[in-house]
Write a structure and sequence with these properties.
The complex is a heterodimer of chains A (about 575) and B (about 210). Chain A is mainly α and about 575 residues long. Chain A contains 25 helices and two strands. A two-stranded antiparallel sheet of chain A has the order 1-2. Chain B is globular and about 50 Å long. Classes of the chains: A mainly alpha (about 575), B alpha/beta (about 210). Chains A and B meet through helix 7, helix 9, helix 20 and helix 24 of A and strand 2, helix 2 and helix 3 of B.
Chain lengths: ~575, ~210
């Protein structure tokens, strides 16, 4: 089948024949004979015009060069090429894609700008940028009003509606449902890229204000979750709970659970008791209008009143305090400078939270995900979306130009929406077993592996190393949990720029499998699964992208049909 | 060399609502460490550890599943052929306890009749936030024929016990013949002793990567 196959397979089970292995130094464990056989094949198919890789791409397949060690001169000329391209009045997107497949320069702001172009957020015509940007950002602002401010305002003011209204049209019903989803998002965003200090630090961009209202500051979504969840957080345990993201603030009971039957009701005080219990719907209904235990009234008060009620405010203060400890404790370990940063952040957090203007970056991420979920009820929120939004947001928020960084929220929202529009089938459960869904993608991956390397494929099948065991996460999260963040950025450069776009993901997966071939052949089931679930960091990302490119050229039948 | 040998492989699954600490329990058991920033699980994660029960070395292969509803269809495929199922709820969140019957239905329907199901109430260190009493959960466990322990992935309390008690029950079932090793989906593999050369590729659990 493949012209490289005989070479690779002939000697793979034993010591690799030195004649096959490239004499150049290669990455430690990527030195599988087949990898190099595949890599070493001159790409004749490239001539057929199927590749998007420019001939001048400074990649030597046999000797993968790590990002930093490329010859300085080549790096400069490459940067100059990007610079020239990006400065043109009308940017040549096709050329930009070609260049970006090989990686976007690390020069400040470049990746942030190029991703916006590659993800169709910015048009190629620079003259149109101000109008397009203004339009899109205004649109996002409207979304915020629509999704966050207005429903809330409606619940707060409508006389005929009330929290216990079980009419399907009740705004409160939707509000509670949203809170459930928010709680999920909230848990996840707090543990988004926790090794990166950015997300725990305070954004210098103030929380957006409502446009339609009287300029009121938008409510904090995490405060809404906390309020709805009624955590008892002042205790030592509560603080700890906030501080450790795996024990993220939990609902004592979800808003909906407030109305579930509970035979274990007791008179715990709401914010200070040793236990909290959930009133039954009937009980809550009874107590809604009449005087009753302070606990139950406080439940409603906390849900209804933003911060006016002193008890609620007190509780929220406690929440803030605990969150601040979480902030400082989670960032203190990073470095002394970030400790200082977090300290000052903590103070400013405490000072301004009441005013509701400043927030941590993860809160911004939370809002983007919530807006997306509300605008796309068919997918809503699925765990893992935060892992896709995270790197994107990071790049935009750290743009050195404040002109860009100040708008990272809206810009990231639109780019995230583009990515989701192209990959969302992976997130939709009922598509799982279809060709379009994640099941189909994983089957494709094994078929491609079979085509590339029947021996390896047979070994994987024999050991029962199924694609769901490892590639489910690879594909849905676009490798964001498999590599260090800089490598994720590099990989996404290639994906966003590639002609096949997300169709290229399949070839990256195959390249990753083939790159650990010898270990997959040698290992037992458990070793193989651990290897693939904890992908060896010593394998250079360039080896993988280069190999993936070759595979995409060589096996065009595995390209997505819809491209 | 001899220490790498084991007589049996038991397959486990860990199930339960999102955020109850399934991955943290696995990590605490395999690495003896608490991982505070454990990311959510997408699909499944995998971990192993060799333990000793009645003088027999047993390798536990543990599948940690994603808790979010979206992943249920995917994670259901892991139930098959599990010798042990650890069903986890969070003692500070009643909703996770309320969902146990649905997890139990899945576990009963999708595993074989001899699968040992063990109930764990995690986060027992957060006593002040307790939302589900021990007695209530114990009664649920007794009513459904489950073994039950409250544990803390954070302090490590009862974590070892949960995994090892499950293994003891499975081992007992093998001894008394109620678990048929030849059945296709018993979740147990017997290794011929001494470990043959095929096992050379296997590494001790301590050296392998974190499955979390």
């Amino acid at each position: 089948m493949s012209d490289s196959q005989p070479n690779g397979n002939g000697s793979d089970e034993t010591t690799p024949s030195p004649s096959i292995v490239s004499p150049q130094p290669v990455v430690a464990d990527g030195a599988d004979p087949l990898t190099h056989a595949v890599l070493a094949v001159p790409p004749p198919a490239a001539a057929a015009g199927t590749t998007s890789a420019p001939a001048s791409r400074p990649i030597s397949p046999a000797a993968p060069v790590s990002n930093g060690s490329a010859p300085a001169a080549a790096g400069r000329s490459r940067n100059a090429e990007f610079e020239a391209l990006l400065e043109a009045p009308v940017i040549d997107i096709a050329k930009l894609r070609e260049l970006s497949v090989g990686g976007i320069p690390e020069t400040p702001g470049t990746r942030s700008l190029v991703w916006k172009l590659l993800l169709d957020f910015l048009p190629p015509d620079r003259e149109r940028w101000p109008a397009v940007l203004a339009g899109r950002r205004a649109l996002y602002s409207n979304f915020l009003d629509e999704v966050i401010v207005n429903p809330y305002a409606a619940t707060a003011t409508a006389q005929s509606d009330h929290p216990l209204n079980d009419n399907a049209e009740s705004k409160w019903g939707e509000f509670f449902k949203d809170n459930e989803m928010l709680e999920q998002i909230d848990k996840d965003v707090r543990r988004t890229l926790t090794d990166i200090s950015l997300f725990q630090s305070i954004s210098h961009v103030p929380r957006p204000t409502s446009k339609t209202g009287t300029g009121i500051t938008m409510e904090s979504l995490c405060a809404r979750v906390d309020r709805a969840c009624l955590s008892t957080t002042h205790s030592e345990g509560g603080v700890k709970k906030k501080a450790s993201t795996s024990y993220t603030p939990q609902a004592k009971s979800k808003p909906v659970a407030l109305f579930q039957d509970d035979d274990d009701d007791d008179d715990a005080s709401l914010f200070g008791g040793s236990s909290t219990s959930t009133p039954t719907k009937q009980k809550a209904a009874k107590t809604a209008s009449a005087d009753s235990a302070p606990f139950k009234n406080a439940v409603l008060a906390a849900l209804i009143a933003p911060v006016d009620d002193p008890k609620t405010a007190q509780a929220l203060d406690a929440l803030d305090l605990s969150r601040s400890s979480a902030l400082s404790s989670s960032t203190s370990s990073l470095s002394s400078s970030s400790t200082e940063l977090s300290k000052s952040n903590t103070e400013s957090d405490l000072m301004t939270r009441g005013a509701g203007h400043q927030e941590a970056h993860w809160e911004v991420v939370e809002r983007i995900l919530f807006v997306f979920a509300k605008l796309n009820p068919g997918i809503a929120y699925v765990q893992g979306m935060n892992e896709i939004l995270g790197p994107l947001y990071y790049i935009f928020a750290t743009d050195r130009s404040s002109e860009w960084a100040d708008h990272c929220e809206a810009d990231a929202f639109f780019c995230f929406t583009t990515i989701m529009a192209e990959t969302r089938d992976n997130f939709i459960k009922h598509l799982d077993d279809t060709v379009a869904g994640i099941g189909g993608s994983m089957k494709q991956l094994m078929d491609l592996t079979l085509a590339i390397d029947p021996v390896l494929h047979a070994a994987m099948v024999k050991k029962n190393v199924q694609p769901t065991f490892f590639s489910f996460r690879w594909i849905t999260l676009l490798f964001s949990q498999e590599f260090k963040l800089p490598d994720v950025f590099r990989l996404w450069d290639s994906i966003f720029a590639h002609k096949l776009r997300f169709g290229f993901v399949l070839f990256i997966c195959a390249a990753m499998i083939v790159s650990v071939r010898s270990r997959l052949l040698a290992g037992e089931f458990a070793d193989c699964i651990k290897l693939l679930q904890n992908y060896p960091p010593e394998i250079d990302i360039r080896t993988i992208t280069t190999l993936a490119e070759r595979l995409a050229i060589k096996w065009p039948q595995f390209r997505p049909q819809f491209i | 060399m001899a220490s790498y040998n084991y007589s049996y492989i038991f397959k486990y699954i860990i199930i339960g609502d999102m955020g109850v600490g399934k991955s943290c329990l696995l990590h605490q058991f395999t690495e003896k460490k608490f991982l505070p920033d454990c990311p959510h699980t997408i699909g499944v994660e995998f971990g192993t550890r060799i333990i000793e029960v009645n003088g027999q070395k047993i390798k536990l292969q543990i599948w940690d599943t994603a808790g979010q509803e979206r992943f249920r269809a995917v994670t259901r495929s892991y139930y098959r052929g599990a010798a042990g199922a650890l069903m986890v709820y969070d003692v500070t969140r009643r909703s996770t306890y309320n969902h146990l019957s649905s997890w139990l239905t899945d576990a009963r329907n999708l595993t074989n009749p001899n699968t040992t199901i063990f109930l764990i109430g995690n986060k027992s260190d957060l006593e002040s936030q307790r939302d589900v009493t021990y007695e209530e959960a114990k009664k649920f466990a007794d009513d459904n024929g489950l073994t039950f322990l409250e544990a803390s992935a954070k302090t490590g309390a009862n974590v070892e016990e949960s995994f090892i008690e499950t293994a003891k029950t499975i081992f007992q079932n093998i001894q008394n013949g109620s678990l048929d090793l030849n059945a296709a989906e018993s979740g147990v593999q017997q290794k011929t002793q001494p470990a043959p050369a095929v096992d050379l590729g296997d590494k001790p659990a301590a050296n392998s990567g974190c499955g979390c």
